[in-house]
């Protein structure tokens, strides 16, 4: 306030003044008030009056420039100077006016009143200016700070305090490096350049780590603050505007990821079409599980609607005369790890025999050529139409030449088919690598830190399946410190379901950033699925919004398996595991559905568990049975007298459910905990 007293005084005098006396009496005061000074002037020699008024003007000027303290100091100095001037005056004074101490007392009283009036006037002006500016600065959605010439904080608004996780008062008097230890030295030098040269710093990017351990991307603009406000005034400090662009960068990254997922899905579709046109079918054999996986094309070739489940089902399609030979080829490929090609006969479900050409190679545990062989994979082609039996070939001597020509043509076609198979094998291998990359790109690389708690998630894929599932989980921090959570599953197990999953996850995140209410997010997502996706696209999901400071969780469920909430164990009693039931339908089923937002408070040392249906779903068993097993298992895990970590919870429930029955589908699991010391 002191730096702008002259400007504030000028603006105050031009504006509306405070009225101390109301009514007609103010006109009487205005007329009679000058009479007292007039009597003093009339009865006092000019040698005393004129210096007194000059000193009074000097005192007012000192108050305007320096404030009340310097004004009072100027009052004392002026009074002493006035007494000295009267004492040294050579003009004789009347006997009744020679008491300069009486005159000094009157002058001292007048100057003190002048100092108080002027300082109050300046204070009122400064307070009115601050009352106008403070709401604007505090309501600004971006961080605003004022630094002095030593680059120490003088003023910080609420938005900047939220970014640094420190109160505004904790910033005052501290440097930027004290508040943000990892601030780059280059930024400090640029701010000093603003002080010395007066340049404006625009759009300087800054990556910092908050005291909570989260990484934020900031954009800083800085400008010089001058005393007079003009371009030639002296620089008294620096004003800075800090914008948090972390979520904007995340949205841009999500858009790039969505574009990559769309390209990958198109590539996968083209690879499948290439197999269909070439009449190729894929297979994979897992050594550990002793299971054989057939593609849809191979199932159709053998007249089946689904792959064989047991060894007996598989052996029913192998010609009895070919079983020992195929077993020998299989064992040799596993032992040597080299590629193989074999021509054999297989039996369809209708009893017909087909001539099959098989190309395969070993699957190793890693990229190392000497890594352990864990299975086989390859492609098959039906060459029945290209085969000519010996009886037909040598039916008559007269047809021998023609048969030989046909045989040569058939051999040429066989060579061409083998070349096509080799090319298709290379394409299939590239497809497999793309699918692996596709699957890894679906889920977030890291989860946000939860103050006063813990958040962990895990994705478990069925190892012996070659397609890509539609399960996902997601979690990210909002600008206000709350955590947005989601978990879900796209109905289906193919490239289209996986592509839709990637898009739905990205869209769900965008909706949560714009309007984080869980029920509103699911309502908008349901409407988008019905209007913008093929008919029959169904997605189950749970979304949530967690406040680490209060432990309050808002959540909504769209046809997804019910979450479980485990309370901390009480001495002498078993832990309570609650099933959070809901009745809202799956996404994509009803266009006018409005999803309900529910609210609960996580108990201290409590654990919230979200999961997809692959964790509890088993063939020939109801979901309720699997859910009861999971609830019992969770109660046993949290029954420990000491708090159990979120990692231990996920490890315990996944290993326990796998022990109860092998996984038949991909699984996502998410655990959220609140610690007892979080308050």
Automatic annotation (TrEMBL):
SUPFAM superfamilies: PYP-like sensor domain (PAS domain)
GO terms, molecular function: phosphatase activity
Domain PAC: start-end pairs: 340-395
Domain PAS: 129-204, 283-337
Keywords in alphabetical order: Coiled coil, Hydrolase, Membrane, Transmembrane, Transmembrane helix
Coiled-coil features, chain-numbered ranges: 400-441
InterPro entries xref list: Bact_Sigma-Reg, PAC, PAS, PAS-assoc_C, PAS-like_dom_sf, PAS_4, PAS_fold_3, PPM-type-like_dom_sf
Transmembrane segments: 20-40, 72-89, 101-118
Record flagged with keyword Magnesium: no
Signal sequence range: none
Cross-referenced PANTHER family: STAGE II SPORULATION PROTEIN E, STAGE II SPORULATION PROTEIN E-RELATED
Protein name as it appears in the record: PAS domain S-box-containing protein
Lineage summary: Bacteria, Bacillati, Actinomycetota, Actinomycetes, Cryptosporangiales
């Amino acid at each position: 306030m002191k730096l702008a007293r002259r400007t504030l005084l000028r603006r105050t005098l031009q504006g509306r003044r405070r009225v101390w006396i109301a009514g007609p009496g103010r006109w009487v005061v205005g007329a009679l008030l000058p009479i007292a000074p007039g009597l003093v002037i009339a009865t006092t020699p000019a040698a005393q009056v004129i210096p007194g008024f000059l000193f009074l003007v000097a005192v007012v000027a000192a108050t305007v420039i320096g404030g009340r303290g310097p004004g009072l100091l100027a009052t004392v100095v002026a009074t002493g100077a006035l007494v000295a001037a009267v004492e040294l005056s050579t003009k004789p004074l009347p006997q009744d006016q020679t008491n300069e101490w009486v005159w000094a007392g009157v002058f001292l009283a007048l100057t003190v009143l002048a100092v108080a009036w002027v300082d109050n006037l300046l204070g009122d002006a400064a307070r009115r200016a601050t009352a106008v500016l403070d709401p604007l600065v505090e309501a600004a959605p971006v961080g605003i700070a004022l630094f002095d010439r030593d680059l120490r904080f003088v003023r910080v608004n609420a938005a900047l305090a939220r970014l640094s996780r420190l109160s505004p008062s904790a910033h005052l008097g501290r440097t930027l490096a004290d508040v943000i230890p990892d601030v780059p030295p280059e930024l400090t030098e640029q701010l000093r350049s603003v002080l010395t040269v007066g340049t404006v710093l625009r759009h300087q990017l800054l990556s910092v780590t908050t005291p909570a351990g989260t990484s934020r991307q900031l954009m800083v603009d800085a400008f010089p603050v001058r005393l007079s406000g003009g371009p030639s005034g002296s620089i008294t400090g620096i004003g800075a505007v800090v914008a948090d662009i972390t979520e904007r960068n995340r949205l841009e990254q999500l858009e790039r990821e969505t574009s990559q997922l769309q390209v990958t899905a198109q590539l996968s579709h083209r690879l499948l079409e290439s197999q269909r046109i070439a009449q190729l079918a894929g297979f994979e054999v897992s050594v550990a599980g002793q299971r054989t996986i057939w593609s849809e094309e191979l199932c159709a070739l053998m007249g089946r609607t689904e792959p064989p489940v047991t060894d007996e089902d598989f052996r029913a399609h192998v010609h009895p005369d070919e079983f020992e030979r195929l077993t020998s080829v299989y064992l040799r490929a596993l032992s040597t790890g080299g590629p193989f090609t074999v021509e054999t006969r297989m039996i369809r479900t209708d009893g017909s025999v087909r001539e099959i050409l098989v190309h395969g190679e070993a699957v190793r545990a890693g990229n190392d050529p000497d890594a352990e062989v864990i299975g086989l994979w390859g492609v098959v082609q039906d060459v029945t139409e290209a085969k000519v039996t010996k009886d037909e070939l040598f039916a008559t001597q007269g047809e021998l030449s023609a048969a030989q020509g046909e045989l040569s043509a058939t051999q040429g076609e066989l060579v061409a088919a083998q070349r096509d198979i080799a090319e298709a094998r290379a394409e299939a291998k590239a497809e497999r690598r793309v699918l692996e990359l596709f699957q890894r790109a679906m889920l977030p690389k890291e989860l946000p830190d939860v103050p006063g708690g813990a958040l962990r998630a895990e994705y478990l894929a069925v190892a012996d399946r070659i397609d890509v599932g539609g399960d996902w989980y997601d979690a990210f921090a909002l600008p206000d410190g709350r955590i947005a959570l989601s978990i879900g599953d796209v109905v289906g197990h193919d490239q289209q379901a996986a592509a839709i999953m990637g898009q739905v996850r990205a869209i769900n995140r965008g909706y949560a950033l714009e309007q984080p209410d869980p029920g509103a997010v699911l309502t908008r997502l349901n409407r988008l699925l019905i209007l913008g996706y093929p008919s029959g696209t169904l997605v189950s999901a749970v979304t949530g919004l967690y406040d680490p400071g209060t432990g309050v969780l808002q959540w909504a469920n769209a046809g997804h398996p019910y979450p479980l909430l485990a309370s901390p164990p009480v001495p002498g009693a078993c832990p309570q595991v609650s099933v959070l039931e809901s009745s809202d339908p799956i996404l994509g089923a009803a266009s006018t559905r409005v999803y309900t937002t529910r609210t609960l408070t996580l108990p201290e040392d409590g654990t919230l568990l979200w999961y997809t249906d692959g964790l509890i779903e088993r063939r020939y068993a109801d979901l309720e049975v699997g859910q009861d097993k999971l609830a019992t298992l969770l109660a046993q895990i949290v029954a420990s007298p000491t708090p159990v970590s979120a990692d231990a919870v996920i490890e315990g429930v996944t290993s326990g459910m796998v022990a109860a029955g092998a996984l038949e589908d991909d699984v996502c699991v998410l655990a959220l905990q609140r610690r007892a010391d979080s308050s």
